[in-house]
User: Fold these one by one.
Assistant:
Number 1:
Amino acid sequence: MSLNTFGHLFRVTTWGESHGPAIGCTVDGCPPGVALSEADIQPWLDRRKPGQNKFTTQRKEPDEVRILSGVYEGRTTGTPIQLMIENTDQRSKDYGDIAQSFRPGHADITYHQKYGLRDPRGGGRSSARETASRVAAGGVARAALAALVPGLKITGYMVQMGVKGIDRSRFDAEEIERNPFWVPDPVAAAEWAEYLDDLRLSHNSVGAVIEVMAEGVPPGLGAPIYGKLDSDLAAAMMSINAVKGVEIGEGMAAAALTGVENADEIRMGPNGPEYLSNHAGGILGGISTGQPVVCRFAVKPTSSILTPRQTITTGGAEVDLVTKGRHDPCVGIRAVPVGEAMMACVLLDHLLLDRGQTGGVRGPIGQ
Amino acid sequence: MSLNTFGHLFRVTTWGESHGPAIGCTVDGCPPGVALSEADIQPWLDRRKPGQNKFTTQRKEPDEVRILSGVYEGRTTGTPIQLMIENTDQRSKDYGDIAQSFRPGHADITYHQKYGLRDPRGGGRSSARETASRVAAGGVARAALAALVPGLKITGYMVQMGVKGIDRSRFDAEEIERNPFWVPDPVAAAEWAEYLDDLRLSHNSVGAVIEVMAEGVPPGLGAPIYGKLDSDLAAAMMSINAVKGVEIGEGMAAAALTGVENADEIRMGPNGPEYLSNHAGGILGGISTGQPVVCRFAVKPTSSILTPRQTITTGGAEVDLVTKGRHDPCVGIRAVPVGEAMMACVLLDHLLLDRGQTGGVRGPIGQ
Amino acid sequence: MSLNTFGHLFRVTTWGESHGPAIGCTVDGCPPGVALSEADIQPWLDRRKPGQNKFTTQRKEPDEVRILSGVYEGRTTGTPIQLMIENTDQRSKDYGDIAQSFRPGHADITYHQKYGLRDPRGGGRSSARETASRVAAGGVARAALAALVPGLKITGYMVQMGVKGIDRSRFDAEEIERNPFWVPDPVAAAEWAEYLDDLRLSHNSVGAVIEVMAEGVPPGLGAPIYGKLDSDLAAAMMSINAVKGVEIGEGMAAAALTGVENADEIRMGPNGPEYLSNHAGGILGGISTGQPVVCRFAVKPTSSILTPRQTITTGGAEVDLVTKGRHDPCVGIRAVPVGEAMMACVLLDHLLLDRGQTGGVRGPIGQ
Amino acid sequence: MSLNTFGHLFRVTTWGESHGPAIGCTVDGCPPGVALSEADIQPWLDRRKPGQNKFTTQRKEPDEVRILSGVYEGRTTGTPIQLMIENTDQRSKDYGDIAQSFRPGHADITYHQKYGLRDPRGGGRSSARETASRVAAGGVARAALAALVPGLKITGYMVQMGVKGIDRSRFDAEEIERNPFWVPDPVAAAEWAEYLDDLRLSHNSVGAVIEVMAEGVPPGLGAPIYGKLDSDLAAAMMSINAVKGVEIGEGMAAAALTGVENADEIRMGPNGPEYLSNHAGGILGGISTGQPVVCRFAVKPTSSILTPRQTITTGGAEVDLVTKGRHDPCVGIRAVPVGEAMMACVLLDHLLLDRGQTGGVRGPIGQ
């Protein structure tokens, strides 16, 4: 990952400021011959877009994607695919007051210090608007994955919102698309609605934990030592706005387990190795095992919360800042499609990297 | 990070198998003119090396590093620095039984599946022995950092071992070097000694959480969006053997905080911005704030624990495996110097990247 | 250089097919604070664009560039700069006949073999239209160079067209902008006009040699061994459509020189080292000396020349192909601005890389 | 290519100074399962090594390579392969006089200016000794190519020495290994011996042109636009010490050809497309055609020639320098194995890159 490009062979470069004319990305290295049109990408953007329900931000962007290159007669050509999304609903005046102040918890101050200047409108390049470009790239990745690994399935969902968790014994994948939180626990869905309403009315915000699971991942993906699959997933998720922690499998909880509890034992099944558990989260030594890849990341709460906060200005004066305008009481909700998109991009990237390095031939077990 | 190299400008490539003749690394992009000799690197390796006390593995390697290039008359030349450490205490017979079996929780099976073959002795390339190369590279990074950012200080320590944590109100940095756990809480140090003795006698193992703090980091380091400082730290720590989670600042706990609790407010001090807290862990928008950079990672427990585990062989037969030989009841202890080394390498890398991209000039505040 | 991105720190990714809706590029890593607007880039595109005189292709594109990101209030922000140029004058019917045939000397057959499909309209991604994106990126590079190295000057010109050369004793830099060939020899300018008219009428084409000279380049740019300045220039120029050779300084002719003739002797001047000649072309050991950097590249003749050529179809049938439509009798003429743009991008890239690696401080001579 | 690493997937990092204890390289990304031992690499080093005949330098190094990692039971494991060659015959006193002076035509001055210091012994890192590491890496590449593309054959030879060329009508590949110049023209071999004797006696030196031809290259290798096969070859050859020009196919001479003369017409053969000529040198649009890949590069004459040259010292004093010691009257001779090694590395790299990006499946013609 470097500057504004991530990926080794499937390389995505995003561009665009929150209040600029457009945002977009260049997707380079997509295998040729994959069926692709705007219709394959738009639904993923629609899932993510603002203004969908009362819990997420009120900015109303159609987020309509256009494919400007890299596709001919409905198939990818192997050349760079340029995706562009025009911005239409910027309300620059919402941020007018704060161009000289640094919003606590935001990148305003660090962008100013690093670059000497910044586009303050909507957070400029540091805004989560950038994640729309990722979701678009994820749409391309999913199309390629569908062609290369038909059984592969990626599902993202929330497992925690603020202090509220889920009961995994009630885990129902079908529930994910039925509630506005993408939470797989129907009881939690109801509780969280009430919880978030209260937060909204008190002008506060909370963080969230999102889990992304990929099933049907072939074994052997990952390029140790420094191109490990879990390293790349960690970098990918940590790069999402407001993320402060990333976990694979048991994650931080692995520290408290004993060796007996943690290791996933192996038996032989009709189709190859079968694991008796998945504490590893589908990755051993940085390489996929064939088990579901399970990755979680934590999103911190939004800072822009209508409560006065102590901060300073570019001129060094101390002020109390109250941010108005449109804000998410829980940005984490909208990170679900973003986490899925990053998972798709990283998995496709590693599929290509693996077949480049090894030809994709697996060491036999039992044959 | 790619394949076996990490870093953008300060690029480290490691090589070597656990039971091969040697291990080492090529450090490319170290600034010229830095005073460097083996004496600057050896102490960091000595901190890490096996056989230091009864709690860590009994393999006795001198881990003596040689500088084979890149230094002339005691100063770095700006050309690649080759560091080599000869292996002397390989006990290949310890692993003889398991060449055909896959140790649960280890990379044996995934290396076999990906590459079709593997060096099974001591875990080959997947062994934690590789981390000695990182620590050596970290020694070079520290030497360069000392020249470029004299006030910068990196400290690693354990904050959790198995189910045992620390009491941060008793945090004493001086305690870190006084106990075999590098834990900054003297009460914990005593408790953990007893706890680990029990585990050792029961042939079990536990995981750990290591925290690495960097103080005196200048603001402005990090290259958003995909070269963010926290992304690179996440990838770096996740790449360490047995790591399953990485956190910055509040980490996963940020999800449960409210916006009011989480944002670090800012006031103006005599030397520039002063933060009233550090929930962010020193990084905002992927760029350092000047606050201490705080990174934590969780190491899972060792799998090689003398208890029979169900597994399979390369031939697909189901067996119960008992691993004998030398093993750590808590590998996490030895990950402390490794985490410090990765922090040093990533920070130096970003220092160079920042001065390349921006000239290192900071946007003024208050002047 | 990788896939569709070139550069280490100043990284340019181009996209777009000849007959797609648009072409463009993402310029990543431009230093912040540089004054930039469309007016800084458009003139370079105007120099390159088709339809300028009777000697170049008749396709009439306005080549109007838009800046979609990375600039705020007239200054670069350090974030990716997206440049887009809409295509308006595609005549897809000109290529209708040949969608199934492979034009000899073109990339049609290799793109088909590698990717399995291709956009045949105007050569798709393999068309020299892609070079407009490079020239746009070159405009950004020039703006940054003007800010960072005020005395640096890049000049491109033709030194050979077909069998016609120039007389270097008549070299007049002012002449370059006065004739349609950018040739610095007024006598040659007249001769070449006649020569090219003849070729045009006989439906033939010739190649060309373009030389690009950069003056005022500071010493010390280049990152040996594999990031040498001349290596990157060679890759950059060879990547231009139809290029078959690249030279630095004496180039291929250096082979015939003796050691006495070739080495540039050095004396001491008021401002530092002064070279008595420049056979080296401004680069020694892959690093700039401070002398003018002199780079030449040869462009092969256009293949699309209205003469029947033997070729095959995708179906494997043997056919005689006659390409109609708009074609250049000498594509080399329009490569002059492209060569200049590549020189600008590579030099800026190395300026940033050098200051990243060394801080830009030079080893003193004589002080 | 970056800093001291070249390659996209087959990545070679070299290290080592001419008079340091050793030189070597890390070869990362070699496919697993390739049969490899020192015996596969040593012969290539023996071809290159100094002291072979009276025409090349008199430094006598055994150039004995050791494989320190990445191979197990005679097969590559897919992990990094460390190759090391110890230096044994450094005569540092040969260079003692010139530590403070800059040899004209050498990188002494530019290394001093860029880095502030340099290892002057034998040219340090800028010495052609570094090419031994490349030849070793080339040995690994050849082993992998032999496994993956059995028919692929790489042959390097000289086509020009000083003012002496060859007669291609007398081209005899068998002659290459029969004379000390690796020249495929027996008449030239005799002439050149005399020519070089004269130069040697007069303490002068000349340059050379080396051609490397690769036969049996599958079509489809190369990653346009900026990972073109010819771009990577140009960078690879230009990175070799003393190289000043690189050509593909007709090279610089393509400029003087007409379109009728230059385009390679295509017919259909029993095994696929057959080209009627190969002016393109086996590459179209940056992608291999299946025709022999033909690459030439020019090496400038050695500067160290026992004739006094005007130069300056680090202190800025003007001196006349006479370099004594061991020197090549024609370094070009020893560049032949180096060019072959670079060709092998680049082709293998692109084979892996292509199968990563496209799966290696070719678009059908005629089937």
Number 2:
Amino acid sequence: MCRFVIYKGTSPVQLSHLLTRPCHSIINQAFDSRLRLDHRRPINGDGFGVGWYDSVHDEELGSQPCIFTAVTPAWNNINLIRLAEKIKSPLVFGHVRATTTGSLSLDNCHPFAYGKLMFMHNGGIAGFHLIKRRLQADLSDDVFNVVQGNTDSECAFALLLSKLPDPKANSFATRTLQQAMLDTIATLNLYAEEAGITEPSLMNFCVTDGESVVATRYISSRHDEAASLWFSSGTTFSEYAQGGHYRMAKADKRENIIMIASEPLTFEKADWMEIRTNNMVVITPKMNLLQIPIVDKFYVSPSDPASLNRDTDFAAAKGLLSPRKALVPVQPRENPTQLSI
Amino acid sequence: MCRFVIYKGTSPVQLSHLLTRPCHSIINQAFDSRLRLDHRRPINGDGFGVGWYDSVHDEELGSQPCIFTAVTPAWNNINLIRLAEKIKSPLVFGHVRATTTGSLSLDNCHPFAYGKLMFMHNGGIAGFHLIKRRLQADLSDDVFNVVQGNTDSECAFALLLSKLPDPKANSFATRTLQQAMLDTIATLNLYAEEAGITEPSLMNFCVTDGESVVATRYISSRHDEAASLWFSSGTTFSEYAQGGHYRMAKADKRENIIMIASEPLTFEKADWMEIRTNNMVVITPKMNLLQIPIVDKFYVSPSDPASLNRDTDFAAAKGLLSPRKALVPVQPRENPTQLSI
Amino acid sequence: MCRFVIYKGTSPVQLSHLLTRPCHSIINQAFDSRLRLDHRRPINGDGFGVGWYDSVHDEELGSQPCIFTAVTPAWNNINLIRLAEKIKSPLVFGHVRATTTGSLSLDNCHPFAYGKLMFMHNGGIAGFHLIKRRLQADLSDDVFNVVQGNTDSECAFALLLSKLPDPKANSFATRTLQQAMLDTIATLNLYAEEAGITEPSLMNFCVTDGESVVATRYISSRHDEAASLWFSSGTTFSEYAQGGHYRMAKADKRENIIMIASEPLTFEKADWMEIRTNNMVVITPKMNLLQIPIVDKFYVSPSDPASLNRDTDFAAAKGLLSPRKALVPVQPRENPTQLSI
Amino acid sequence: MCRFVIYKGTSPVQLSHLLTRPCHSIINQAFDSRLRLDHRRPINGDGFGVGWYDSVHDEELGSQPCIFTAVTPAWNNINLIRLAEKIKSPLVFGHVRATTTGSLSLDNCHPFAYGKLMFMHNGGIAGFHLIKRRLQADLSDDVFNVVQGNTDSECAFALLLSKLPDPKANSFATRTLQQAMLDTIATLNLYAEEAGITEPSLMNFCVTDGESVVATRYISSRHDEAASLWFSSGTTFSEYAQGGHYRMAKADKRENIIMIASEPLTFEKADWMEIRTNNMVVITPKMNLLQIPIVDKFYVSPSDPASLNRDTDFAAAKGLLSPRKALVPVQPRENPTQLSI
């Protein structure tokens, strides 16, 4: 039961407004425990990480992201609290970890970075120990040696890197990142099939190069529901009432801020729209938001009644489903191109 | 919202059976979040500690307790998991911390130790910053310099040490520990009165010398409820069903095991009895259990109907009240002597 | 045997050039162990800290410094390594700690901060446990409650705060900081005298408000040598040879960079000048450097031959003396005003 | 530049006498820095670990070792200091780590354990990134998934496990462990040859099952010297002078204690004998000590003058050579059988 948040804005956000001050941030949330079936694992205390890009380009500092991670809980990390008051960024990834695979170690904290790229994951790759070596065999030497920890997530990132023409490039076309993401999911599905793994994998992945963001809400199943994923957009994100109560305001038609998160980050659930299962969501450099179905054998068309009846028990048992009280149809911002994989 | 557990047995317990394996241990519990009003602070990830006495006396090793503490969450501490599988003890204090005052630091983790004594606290001393210097002024130089961290709890322990005739003694009469505990509470009440502090203090304290255990369920208020405190006793404490489901069994009249905890540690709530508010509970070296009213101006006699109507909002707001579904009158094991303070 | 470094420049420095990349930085130094008499304590692995001010003022971010501390060794702290590559600042305090008093805890890591002020210390206050309560009694309630850890250094900072007319002010005259520093030293000497402490105290202190820097090289003895303190100034500080070999270059008469450090930070010892014992060194907001004798009963005039014969054993035994191979007379940049205390 | 120590005794040792109290323990040593060429890496602060077997068998606790590891420096680890005062064991592995490969993480701390086995390493496998996948391909699924960290050492342990007929066995013949060790070295040499790696690997390995100990002093070179390895034996190991000065005493012919260490652990260097390069040293369950040449293409017979002229620069540059002031010929305790590989 990890949690993550993505922020992309035309103006930089002070990290504290995203991470440490809001009472509903991924760090401070008092999660609703009634949905939790996994009573042996307390929530979200197994480390965290935040990654961000500079708000002003400085030749000397370069354009790679900066990453701060810790194995102590985020809500009580004095360094995070101090840094969040001093750092602004137009593109932030935040992640709170609950171990499913992988030990408590900085090496296992998301987001992972390579060159200009950042990546994080919420979910779990089923039977990963059965496919790890198969995956490693497909990596180039460079990418193989990037992997420092022992999580399925970091290996998925390495696989995604291996799907890119040049993972060390200075810039990536949005479409290149989209295709690498689709290839990663397809390859993981292939490995699972070869290994005879029937349990579904929960693959909510996000990747960015500092310009584009590509995220997925995906499960390798036609019947089970994916881990939850929501987005919100507006003009300003600010505190409207003392005690860390934040709200997304929409002053005009322009979208200055887009946030994607594993669950709604404000009490105003109407501000949050759910991303459809087995869809990819893309934020372009120019702040357009696209939602694109991932059409493979696990895809169920929204016109198929079965799409409304996915079984939530699997994701809920893993603590990966937020309450769907505010289910609102997603309104993509432009005509999405449907990619097939 | 700290949690603690005390184990005293005629036979040593493997620490894992108390701490890491039971699904309802203070470490693994999935706490019922419906009672929590403090939505800004996640639960119980701010460090933990366990203290224990040797199961076999060894002249070279001495008779002081051993303490293991950490600032990372207990449920994922590989050292705790390993040590708990290898250590047995007849008297254990375990504590999981949620910061109220004091920073995240090993110096602030309970239990605290001095010579043969161990101490821990669940609750909070109201307006502590207003009385800290007054308290420090009352300590001997030796005891003053014992304090390493910045918590109210450690200062309360230092105060208790200063109430003992010889805090470095090799043994203590049970009654000596009881009196020091009563003196500590009385002195803290005096400081609060002098400083004009009207908010109640929650003083669930425990102290042991390895032989006797003295614990309190106490609040400096006639109207508010204290933080919860429960006990259970029996012959064996063991797993009756896979997945960490433990139960206290009572094979005969003899009490081989006594456990005191901030909330019931098994699903079998009938096994747990609530300790009355503003009472002291004592385990003697010979495993007798006494419950003794702390009769001061905050005491309300059980025969007074007001005793049933203490307001639970204060303690609940601090996350210090467990659900009272299994309220059972406490049956003290012998005729308690009532001490006045 | 702590180490510290101060950087103040007309242009911001990337923290990595100060802390992580130079082979002679306070973090990476392979200290000469031949001077060390304290064979029981390894060097400089007991935590570190770095504090800095923003290079560009941002109303939303405010003007207080940011502090990053850790209890793991600095040379292997992945967060420090990453942050140092991304942060630039015109005024930096860096500190590597070896515990003398105080436990291993973030609360005990320098620099300490309060409002706009930062403070750090290299040395030790003799018999501190004998004067701690006396010192605490002299603090205001506000300042008393600032102290989080258990070091002599943090208490000295609290004392300095109590010597300022308004420790929460937005700006301080350089002279106000100088006077507070002198008062702090004088008061600590008074406490020691009252308590009958005869061992000298090593008081190399530094304080800044983001504009001025005040540092001392001081020992409360006429006969023993103080902990070492050096400075260097120039136009650029950069790598002249691979492997982290840095040098201070002086392109013209202008002083763009002033560094003060517990020992020379480059192989070019000629670039480093020693600050005289029992002197205060001041960097003004306009980058003038003053050296001012601290004239009290422990002062020995440079014209007195005894000034050349201070006994180095005491400081060396504490690991606080760097080899004086490059002893060069200090050339203060302007006519210092001599303050008496 | 790691350090390790092995203790095996007929009586259990209190861990503090081995680890925390002696001024020359692997934790407290003030290493002679004059031999160090690697000036960029401070010494031995990158975590440590200790593993031990119970001194009394307890059916409930089982016979696997207990491991305690940390990423903060050992000399200041309050948990280690407390545990070492309370734990006794007849067979202890202690290890202090300086990172060469692998990040700062508990997963990377030695000793590593599997079932009844413990393993540690001092040295480095040359070009490990070039042979890691080759090594992994040779592991069984079980053993592959044992590896949690990213060090060459843990992979070498996994390889050794794969050389055992049953790595989960309850007991191992001494000779089985010896053969697995030889096979591990031979296989690593083979991988290096296949990958065209010419830099020598430093393979000082130790493995134990709680009964036998097998350690190697080995380098894959005919010309360079291996990392240092010493042993001492006697009747008692105790403090003869205040300040942590320990000595090995030999009261009679019986060997009650055998210690093997990366460098002499007392000032009495005459008590320590150097193990010959490219030899295996074995402690049998009955406390016999054998020294056995590892005869392969890198072996140089002691009768060959070249054996005295191995070049120490390579090992010294890695900080892995202790001063050979007390070079004493090793006197093996019984007629060793020479194994060929």
